[in-house]
Amino acid sequence: MENKNTVLSKKDILDAAEKTLRRYGPKKTSVTDVAKELNISHGTIYRHFPTKTALKEAVTERWLEEEIITPLKQLINADKTDPDQLMKTFILKLISLKQNHAANDVEMFEMYAEVTATSIELVDNHVNGIIEMLSFIIEQGIQTNIIRKVNHRDLARSIFYATTKFHHPFHANEWKRGSMSKEFDKVWELIRGGFKVSKE
Questions:
Q1: Which CATH class is domain 56-195?
Q2: CA-CA distance, 62 to 171, in Å (whole number)?
Q3: Which of 16, 147, 158, 159 meets the CB 3.0–4.6 Å disulfide criterion with 37?
Q4: Other CB atoms closer than 10 Å to residue 33's CB: what's the count?
Q5: pTM of the model
């Protein structure tokens, strides 16, 4: 029975929703399931999140921040290699995070793929966060004469979309192929040839 004196936070609901989604999967999980996990009425959840879609988007947004964006930020802060190498390391880290979650965090990745197909704003925010980090690396490369003088945000966006096949959930089934690593190396060689300052 619901405790009327309990102050329920959005974090409490998101924690319970993520736990429930992992248990039943995104297609079978209902708001009622989440409410049962918290021992409250589903109406209490609707006071925080007006629809099931809004709840799933909030869970996905938090998951992306914790599992994708935060590790990428940590990489930039910790990696002291030159911007040319760091850019490749950054993209490979993004690919590794997405592909590892697709293989080992199936329910949450499935929900992420589902939300990606419907929530333009959430996807744009996620993509823009990654592009801003890429842009920062590129800007450092331009300043140290490693990367050509270009609009760093345009180049960051171009690199992100040029490597989409390796990190967008739409392509998850292709990631199981053993040739993906070699395919990335070929794509990166072409990308790098376009931005690297020639020393000759």
A1: mainly alpha
A2: 22
A3: 16
A4: 17
A5: 0.91
